[in-house]
């Protein structure tokens, strides 16, 4: 696995229920992409090929807009190692979730 991406989608909506509904749609999309992922309280992390993860990040914005957000902000963290493997979700936090 050459990349790990953490994305926090922040739809610009008026109430928390609507925000959660839209973020849930984004997470549902991520979950269906076939890569290892982890949902945290502030962001979702996904592991896989760099170019495919960048496409997923891009689509997350479109998902939020199609779900009804008039605009969306995203905070993205990327770990990329084209010749090797990045530190996995499991190695980073697995010991805390046994």
Could you please describe the fold and organization of this structure?
- There is one protein chain.
- The chain is of the alpha+beta class.
- The protein has helices at residues 16-31, 50-66, 89-93, and strands spanning 3-11, 37-39, 44-48, 72-80.
- It is globular and about 40 Å long.
- Helices cover 39% and strands 27% of the residues.
- The protein has one domain: Alpha-Beta Plaits (2-Layer Sandwich), CATH 3.30.70.
Report the helical percentage.
25-40%
In total, the number of domains comes to 1
**By helix and strand content, what is the structural category?**
alpha+beta
- Gyration radius (Cα, Å) is 14 Å
Approximate shape = globular
Major sheet = 4 strands, antiparallel
Mean pLDDT: 96
Number of discrete helical segments: 3
Q: Beta-strand percentage?
A: 25-35%
Give me the strand/helix succession. EHEEHEH
Query: Quick one: CATH class?
Result: Alpha Beta
Number of DSSP-assigned strands: 4
CATH topology: Alpha-Beta Plaits
Strand order of the largest sheet: 2-3-1-4
Q: Which spans of ≥5 residues are poorly predicted at pLDDT below 50?
A: none
The CATH architecture name reads 2-Layer Sandwich
